[in-house]
Amino acid sequence: MVTVCGDPCRSGRRRAANARARSARSGRGCAITSGSVALDEQTERLGARIRSFRQARGLTLVELARLAQLSHPFLSQLERGQARPSMVSLERIARALGSSQIELIAAATDDLVPGEGDSRVSLVRSMEGPQGPFGGGEARILVHGEVSFIPMEFRGSNRSPGEFYRHDEDEFLHVVSGRVLVDLADDGEFELMPGDSIHYAGGTLHRWCSLAEGDYHLFIVKERRFGS
């Protein structure tokens, strides 16, 4: 979803151009519908990360557009930082890439975290970490930067498992609270109680839901096989 920047009056074109120039100098960016200037730094990083994920999966833009059911021109603009996706579009892209909205958003914002850089240590306090949609609930990523695994705290209350997910990376689940049904398609269904854990290899179809009323709480670790 793109916010248009400009003046509806023809006499305002110069003012709009000057505003874009001032915005670029200040580092804030400006939302546009076309051109060579990124909407903002975060959008530019998000586009670059989507391109990185796509190339790592060996997909062309046309192939990703088909899998995500989005237009090729839109994805091309998105990867160049010239368009901002809606949450629905980002979910489609994430599914097509075997990732998630929160992983793409976190990857796009990690470099904006003060003091991270090339540090060997990543500290995430209790109220910190990127948060957003993941599966049928909300997840919080518990690490910053390029690491070999992605630990997440997950909370959900969905009683329906929804659609299956599949990605190339291994994944590990540990139930902190609640009763959870983990459905691995042909590999079986598993009822997990607090303290139970399950691991499944990359490429396994998977989904999960609550077996009781109320929320459930998971600790998830997902393998990361490629970086930026």
From TrEMBL:
Keyword terms of this UniProt record: DNA-binding
Presence of keyword DNA-binding: yes
InterPro entries according to UniProt: Cro/C1-type_HTH, Cupin_2, Lambda_DNA-bd_dom_sf, RmlC-like_jellyroll, RmlC_Cupin_sf, TransReg_Diox_bact_type
HTH cro/C1-type domain boundaries: 50-104
A family per Pfam: HTH_31
SUPFAM superfamilies listed in its UniProt record: lambda repressor-like DNA-binding domains, RmlC-like cupins
Protein name: Helix-turn-helix domain-containing protein
Organism name: Herbiconiux daphne
